[in-house]
Design brief:
The chain has about 200 residues and is mainly α. The protein has one domain. The chain is about 50% helix and about 5% strand. Strands 1-4 form a two-stranded antiparallel sheet. GO terms for molecular function: calcium ion binding. Pfam families: EF-hand_5. This is EF-hand domain-containing protein.
Length: about 200
């Protein structure tokens, strides 16, 4: 191989390394931002152990929520678990959750690695659009509320009448809807395996 070919090959290797190394370093934050942490049927983030896999985090939550230890979650158990989370977020006891309350809750419970990833969205995948005058438009990948995943928010998605707040009835209805989608055998309950199936799409 000629010296010229060797120099060109070495240059390409250096270019590839320069691109690959930063991407390898930001892979986990990007994944965290896009999907958010694992969550319960009610949308509670499971962040006690940031290093736990989705299956580990969801499995530990299921064991806590299954209060009668029969291996399934019925509606009463799921409702009790959802109401506990609702009260934790509804800081002022107004009987509804606002985006500000949700952001404050996440700022309090999220470990540093989640806060950093979700409050600093990854770089846009394409140049920012510009107005006719040349000014850059706001990056559409940046979220209005800090620490909100890029996917549909699991809590605010329950806001059925779009009044920017979630009542307990709306909250419980969305939780039941999620449980119904996971109830593969349609027995009105969700098993541990049915709940863990939600991790396969992450």
């Amino acid at each position: 191989m000629s010296r010229g070919h060797m120099l060109r090959r070495e240059r390409w290797v250096l270019i590839l390394l320069a691109v690959a190394l930063p991407l390898a370093g930001c892979g986990k934050p990007r994944a965290v931002y896009l999907a958010g942490p694992p969550s319960t049927l009610a949308g509670e983030p499971l962040v006690d152990d940031p290093d736990a896999s989705c299956a580990q985090a969801v499995g530990a939550w299921f064991a806590r929520a299954d209060t009668n230890k029969d291996g399934v979650l019925d509606l009463a158990e799921a409702r009790t678990d959802a109401q506990r989370f609702f009260k934790a977020v509804d800081a002022d006891g107004s009987a509804y959750i606002t985006p500000d309350e949700l952001t404050d809750y996440r700022a309090k419970v999220y470990p540093a690695q989640y806060r950093g990833a979700l409050s600093t969205p990854p770089p846009p995948s394409k140049p920012a659009p510009k107005t006719p005058g040349g000014s850059e438009l706001p990056d559409p990948e940046h979220r209005r509320f800090q620490m909100t995943p890029a996917t549909a928010d699991p809590v605010m998605a329950a806001d059925q009448n779009l009044d920017f707040r979630v009542t307990e009835d709306e909250f419980i209805a969305k939780m039941a809807e999620r449980g119904g989608r996971l109830d593969a055998d349609h027995d009105g309950k969700v098993s541990r395996d049915e709940v863990l199936a939600s991790c396969q799409s992450r």
